[in-house]
Design brief:
The chain is an all-alpha fold and about 350 residues long. It has eleven helices and two strands. It has one domain: Rhodopsin 7-helix transmembrane proteins (Rhopdopsin 7-helix transmembrane proteins, Up-down Bundle). Helix 3 runs antiparallel to helix 4, helix 4 runs antiparallel to helix 5 and helix 4 packs antiparallel against helix 7.
């Protein structure tokens, strides 16, 4: 009798953990996608929220909605051991991860475009109108998509790496040919946009501090230009908070996979945790906007009140019709009674 000493697959040894992880990923995907679409609708329907930089913000929210609603759920379904797993589909890995790869890098480069926009608004306000219309604005919207597509096509054609399944969960990923190519991909997709974004925000804060201590304080009655500047300062703080939260959740997985690929591939539970952390970074983007921005919360309350009012009228309308019907029938009955008595 032959006894096999082979270790069972990892997805058989962590059934409970995979179930919990799958539930968490489903919750984060649903929350992030729903809130991103909600913010998209708020900005599209509210003139107050539409500004010169709205196109960049809408671009970011669209990418987050696609990542939470399409990219990450498809990637999760490629894992062995999850409910309704599609790990047996060989083409799913390549198609799914290409889409996921594009969106991840789009978000990184869109964050950089937003930082450039805020830098011009605060540090070079006289040039800001030129960057919020026409070719320059459209270029800042389209450029992240082209860059993300370009990075994703490199492993698609076998340049520097290739899309393949990792042995732990038979999940999709990029296998880099060597450490040099690993560094190139990490820098192109994450290192360059994230570091540039961080430096831009530091520069903005340095300029703001310099103006605060070296420029005389404006009188109590602020003019329109001063109010606009204060609003731009608040938006910088909000965008920077979102960027720090997202970057903190984004950086650990690609760094581990890029520079410690062998060690990372041998830690199946760490892979699940890092994947959940990356999704959390996307899902928190609309949450932070709603928490930090008073304008978004005000418009959300206003939209809720309008929706409640419309639904209330629709609910009351059948009742009013029924009551009017009862009243008219009562009047007819009384009229016929009076006619009979008079006769």
């Amino acid at each position: 009798m032959n006894v096999s000493n082979s270790t069972p697959p990892v997805y058989h040894r962590f059934r409970l953990e995979v179930t919990v992880w799958y539930s968490i990923m489903t919750f984060l995907s649903t929350t992030g996608c729903t809130l991103s679409i909600l913010l998209l609708l708020l900005i599209a329907l509210s003139k107050k929220l539409r500004t010169r930089s709205s196109a960049l913000f809408l671009n970011l929210l669209l990418q987050v909605a696609l990542q939470c609603g399409v990219g990450m759920p498809l990637l999760v379904q490629s894992y062995q051991g999850v409910p309704f797993s599609l790990a047996g589909d060989k083409e799913l890995c390549r198609r799914t991860f290409i889409f996921y790869f594009i969106i991840v890098h789009c978000v990184d480069w869109t964050d950089l475009m937003i930082a450039v926009n805020r830098f011009i608004a605060v540090c070079l306000p006289h040039k800001y109108p030129q960057w919020t219309r026409g070719f320059r604005l459209y270029s800042m919207v389209v450029a992240p998509w082209l860059i993300g597509l370009g990075i994703a096509l490199l492993p698609q054609f076998g340049i520097g790496g290739e899309f393949r399944r990792f042995t732990s969960w038979e999940s999709c990923g990029v296998f880099y040919y060597n450490a040099t190519w690993s560094l190139v991909f990490v820098m192109l997709g994450i290192g360059l946009p994230v570091s540039s974004t961080f430096l831009l925000y530091l520069t903005i804060f340095a300029v703001v501090l310099y103006r605060h201590f070296r420029v005389p304080v404006a009188p109590v009655g602020m003019g329109e230009a001063t109010r606009r500047t204060q609003k731009r300062y608040r938006s910088v703080r909000m965008f920077f908070g979102v960027f720090v939260c997202y970057a903190g959740c984004l950086l650990p997985p690609p760094i581990a996979n890029g520079f410690f690929q062998k060690e990372y591939s041998s830690q199946p539970m760490l892979q699940l945790i890092f994947r959940a952390v990356m999704l959390l970074g996307n899902a928190l983007i609309p949450v932070i906007y709603l928490i930090v921005s008073k304008d978004y919360r005000a418009q959300l309350r206003l939209g809720k009140e309008k929706l409640t009012s419309v639904l209330g009228k629709k609910i009351q309308q059948p009742e009013l019709l029924r009551m009017s019907g009862i009243t008219s029938s009562t009047k007819q009955t009384a009229a016929s009674t009076n006619a009979t008595s008079n006769g």
